[in-house]
Every structure is written in structure tokens, then in C-alpha cells.
Design brief:
The protein is built from seven helices and seven strands; from the N terminus they run αααβββααββββαα. By secondary structure, the protein is of the alpha+beta class. The chain folds into two domains: about 60 residues; about 140 residues, no CATH class. Strands 4-5-6-7 form a four-stranded antiparallel β-sheet. Strands 1-2-3 form a three-stranded antiparallel β-sheet. α1 packs antiparallel against α6 and α1 crosses α7. The radius of gyration is 26 Å and the shape is elongated. It starts with a helix and ends with a helix.
């Protein structure tokens, strides 16, 4: 029993140390606010909610979009209905029903710059390095929208929806946090069945380590 316990101890030492250290990081949450900060485009003007005179029923009857619709502020300061039509995502002026065109790359980069400037830690983002077209899942239109991904010299990438102005950001810090989660939950390989096997194997081994340690501590010297 003593030999079995001595073999189990070194075998489980590394996973247990990793589990404790990564658990401590989750508790402290150092720079989590920076990593998961929600960026938003500062509105060009405060929206006048009384200007939304076009009803959702009128939008649907005219075939301008399909249900459901979301009424929200566009970065231009106009109120807009966001949704989807037969030819993709749409943004409709809530007063006139006119389509609001997607932002140009230059306008999208200006949105990103303004959002970074309004961030709680703009120095962490740095300045723009380059940009590339991409897509972003929108909570307003309910699907994938055309977007622009802007990479900065602060090892961050900010993605902005060209239609709604919604943003997401990620970077090296997010990657580090994701890796600590993977270590904590024994997701050590890219293969999910192997990770599940590691978890199933570790549980009885930890129990065996505890039981043998308890048994040895209760034995008379």
C-alpha cells in the first residue's frame, strides 16, 4: 500500500499543482476586465426615440424585413430596425424605412478607433496594424453579418459589424485565459475523447491517493 501511494503521489503531483494554480488565477481574475471588456461605438448623436414612427407591423407588411425585428441605435445616432430579409441582414431607418447601408472599411476603422479611445484601457490595444473583411454573429440581426477585423499592435483583434456596429474583441490575453481553463479541466489534447478519458482516469486515481494516504496515516508506526 505504501509503495502504491508513493507511485500515485508523483504521478498526480503535476495535475494537482496545475489545478490549484489555474484555480487561483480564476479566483483572482487578473486583467479579466480587459480581456472581456465590451467595446461599443460611441454614438454620433443621442437617438430621439420619438422619431421611431414606423411600426414593426408596417415593416413586415411592406416586406422590408422578416420577423423578429430589433429596434436599437445605429452608430450614426439614428434609430433602426435590425433584422433579416430574403437577401440577408438589413438595417432600416425606424422613421422612413430606408435601408441603412453597411459601413465602408474606412468608416468601420473609425468606429473601432473611437471605441478603443473610449475603452477603460486604450493603451492595451495600441494602434491599428491592418484589417481584413470577415463576418460577425449579430444579436440584432440574428445571423452572420459582414464585418471588419482590425488587428492592433497590442496583440488584439477588434471585429466590428458593418451593419449594426456591434463589436467583439480578442487577443493574446484571451488565448492565455483559454489555455488556463483547458489546463484546469484536463483538456490537454485537441481530441475530446482523449480529454474525457483523462478526466475519467484522474478521478479514481485521486480517490485512491486520498484513501491510501488516509489508510497509511491511521496505521500504527
Amino acid at each position: 500500500m505504501r509503495r502504491f501511494h508513493r507511485v500515485l503521489g508523483p504521478l498526480l503531483a503535476l495535475p494537482l499543482v496545475l489545478w490549484v494554480v489555474t484555480g487561483l488565477l480564476f479566483h483572482v481574475k487578473h486583467r479579466y476586465g480587459e480581456a472581456y471588456e465590451v467595446l461599443a461605438v460611441p454614438l454620433a448623436a443621442q437617438p430621439d426615440w420619438t422619431s421611431a414612427t414606423l411600426s414593426p407591423a408596417a415593416v413586415l407588411r411592406a416586406g422590408l424585413a422578416r420577423a423578429p425585428l430589433v429596434l436599437a441605435s445605429h452608430p450614426s445616432g439614428r434609430l433602426a430596425y435590425f433584422g433579416r430579409s430574403a437577401d440577408g441582414p438589413v438595417a432600416l431607418d425606424a422613421e422612413s424605412g430606408e435601408r441603412i447601408a453597411p459601413a465602408t472599411p474606412d468608416a468601420a476603422r473609425a468606429w473601432v478607433a473611437a471605441a478603443i479611445a473610449a475603452s477603460s484601457c486604450p493603451e492595451r490595444f495600441g494602434t491599428e496594424l491592418d484589417s481584413a473583411p470577415t463576418t460577425l454573429r449579430s444579436s440584432r440581426t440574428g445571423g452572420e453579418d459582414p464585418a471588419l477585423a482590425v488587428r492592433t499592435d497590442g496583440s488584439k483583434t477588434v471585429t466590428v459589424d458593418l451593419l449594426t456596429g456591434e463589436m467583439s474583441q480578442t487577443g493574446a490575453l484571451n488565448d492565455f485565459i483559454d489555455r488556463t481553463y483547458a489546463l484546469h479541466y484536463l483538456q490537454w489534447t485537441p481530441w475530446e475523447p482523449v480529454n474525457v478519458a483523462l478526466v475519467l482516469l484522474s478521478i479514481p486515481l485521486v480517490i485512491a491517493l486520498a484513501v491510501t494516504g488516509l489508510w497509511l496515516s491511521m496505521r500504527k508506526p
